[in-house]
Amino acid sequence: MTLTSRAFHNDQLGPWYEKICQMTNKEMALPMNTGAEAVETAVKAARRWGYDVKGIEDNRAEIIACVGNFHGRTMTAVSLSSEAEYQRGFGPMLPGIKLIPYGDIEALREAITPQTAAFLIEPIQGEAGIVMPPEGFLKEAKALCEKKTCAVHCG
User: Which tens digit of pLDDT belongs to each residue from 31-69?
Assistant: First the structure.
């Protein structure tokens, strides 16, 4: 299905929402046009959840991401990046971003604080080839984030 602006009538969007919610066992879905748009929305949603549900003090929400990520060319995406060249000329970067080595569960454990709203992870990094986390990392990271009341977003 091609996603069009919701300003235009699309008789396939309603049935698509129903099908995707049924397939994912979720109550709602929010389709995006690009991965960068999806990451922007995920970060916004995580911060809002952190403030409204977790009780993080205003303007203090943190997002943890991994070194070597690529989430696009938007301001949030380059703020999440560990590549200085991607950030050059666009500073200052967005506050509240922490980077940890990819696949390092101890670094994640140390990085999570009461202000952590989400851990944003690519299940397989592709910017510099195909980089996979150590066996069991994703499952362990999810369990750790659940224990620490921190959302996990795969992007």
Answer: 888 889 999 999 999 999 999 999 999 999 999 999 999
Phi/psi for 64 (5° steps) reads -100, 130
Number of domains the chain is built from? 1
Q: In what order do the strands lie in the sheet with 151-154?
A: 97-100, 62-66, 116-121, 151-154
Per-residue pLDDT of 64-104, as tens digits, reads: 999 999 999 999 999 999 999 999 999 999 999 999 999 99
Provide the domain limits for residue 118. 33-154
Answering whether pTM is above 0.85, one says yes
- Look at residues 36, 66, 43, 35 and name the one whose alpha carbon lies nearest to residue 132: 66
What is the widest separation between alpha-carbon atoms in the chain?
49
- Residue 154's region, left for phi above 0, alpha for psi from -120 to 50, else beta, is beta
- What CATH number does the domain containing 94 carry? 3.40.640.10
In contact, 126 and 70? CB cutoff 8 Å:
yes
